Amino acid sequence: MTADAWEWDETLFAGSAAHYSVGRMPYPSGLAAAVRDALGLDGTGRLLDVGCGPGSLTLLLAPLFASTVGVDPDAGMLAEAARRAEEAGLADVEWRRLRAEALPDDLGAFKVVAFAQSFHWMDRPLVARRVRDLLEPDGFWIHVGATTHRGAEVDSLPHPAPPWDRIGELVAAYLGPVRRAGQGYLPGGTAGGEEEVMRGAGYTKVTRIQVDDGRVFDRSVDAVVSAVFSLSSSAPHLFGERLPAFETELRALLDDAAPDGRFSEREVSTGVVIWRP
Fold first, then answer.
1. With bands split at pLDDT 50, 70 and 90, how would you rate the model's confidence at 5?
2. What is the extent of the structural domain holding 101?
């Protein structure tokens, strides 16, 4: 099976939602301000976050708008997003369970439609066209791309970096050498060519901004374990009855790498691509 032959199914991130808050590093603290300044946002208008997951980007950007809608097909992700919104005291956020391909007309119009590492899981030409119908005439599509489960590779850190190569080998020992994704496989990874898709759907790239605070985070063993389980390629359901054995081996590997249980990682630079129809 090739990446193009892969089909989405609802188990893609099954069991991963609760691990995001523990295992994923936050976006750069300056990301919201950078988006605000680049788009000229003034606290009015509406935001739609498509494939919002547990609301990591949704809740960061929601204060820039009068109201926000987050959509995702995973019930666990939406439950976690709602919990985090309540915890943050954000009331003007609505969560709807649906796939991007089924975005309905009753959602209304939006100043900004955002995707954060979610577009590649979708029927991209269809979704790109559908979103055009939901954007205000002066609206923006933004794609936020960043790796938040692991940090950038740097030479000097206060504590050892998590041994991601060894972790990958352990995952492969349990799940096989070909990347898993839901009930299928992605031997070639997720599809590329986003710019061609967007231009084919009638969008023009306005600009690209890059945000990098350079922060270094201390990471516990629990955080690294949750980072692994937050990934589609090592979501808890994929291990079946072998999940406890895998976690035991994973924790032993991490204990060996950092006997005091302390790791460090530097956040990854976050890029935002801005499109207009």
1. low
2. 3-276
Number of domains within the chain: 1
Is the Cβ–Cβ distance between 200 and 275 less than 8 Å?
no
pTM equals 0.93
- CA distances to 15, 59, 65, 70, 86 from 90, rounded to whole Å, are 25, 8, 11, 13, 6
Please tell me the total number of residues recorded for the chain in this structure. 277
Helix axes 243-257, 221-229, angle to 10 degrees: 140
Name the token pair of 100.
Answer: 């991007």
Short-list 93, 107, 170, CA closest to 136: 107
CATH for 112: 3.40.50.150
The DSSP element (H or E) to which 101 belongs, if any, is none
Residue 22 has pLDDT above 60, yes or no: yes
